[in-house]
Amino acid sequence: MPDVQAAPLLIELRPGVPFCDATELNRIARQQGLCLAIAQAALFDQICQAVTLEPALEHGLIRHYLEQEDVDSDLALEQFLLRKGWDQADLRYFATKGYRLELFKQQVFQQEVEIRFLERKLDFDQVHYSLIRVQDENLAFELHQRLLEGEAEFADLAAAFSEGPERHSQGQIGPVPLTQAHPTVAEKLRISQPGQLWQPFFLVDIWLILRLDRWEGARLEDQLREELLNELFYNWLQERVMQMLAGETPAPLPLHMLS
Question: Per CATH, which fold does 126-216 belong to?
Answer without folding.
Answer: Chitinase A; domain 3 (3.10.50)
